[in-house]
Known about the structure:
single chain; 15% strand
Amino acid sequence: MSRRIQVIGAHSADFVWRAGGAIAKTVELGGEAEVIALSYGERGESGELWKQPDQTIENVKKLRHAEADAAAAALGASFRCLDLGDYPLEIGKPELELIADVIRSFAPDVLVTHTDTDPFNPDHPVAYRAVDRARSLAAGAGVQSAFATVKPPALFLFEPHQPELCNFMPTTFVDITSVFDKKQAAMGHMKAQAYLQTYYAERAGHRANHARRASGLQEVRYAEAFQRIVPQVVGEL
Length: 237
């Protein structure tokens, strides 16, 4: 059965570093993928672009959109930015309803977002709380509702930059060996944060080591780590 994965990040590049492989893997297996950015990261995550003379915030947004769109396409996903602003990212009722509508419209089987804690990035926990709450609203909060609802998607958190400081405990490793070249190509489009490309390529190798030890599958060369939040329902263990 084909799967639908939706990745919602605070900023336009978050998806590619932390879930690019999982996105490409879903598409490789015949599924569909959608990337949603709550902001472009135009103020706090576009340092290289602001070095250009006479730079403007609208031009930074335009460049960031082009980067993210190309990166998503390299993975086989669509990209959309809600342009809610960054540093600080602020979510009120209208923004929360918009995010819930986005989830309801795509109806993902799997929803991926940030951890609930990040001492170095104030936007990431805001994104987590918004996505977690919007997911519940889109699914009818467990009851029949006055608006259309979707089947509750499985909720996963992707690995933050410093997992040990962000309450991140990996519960799931995704083998991205067969699509690692696509993740590398996608990361290559993120020129505003090119310094992260080497870090996340190395991280995929580290997590593959953990995945091999956990599974005994020696063919895993690259992997991504995720933390599952909603319990899994199965017929047997």
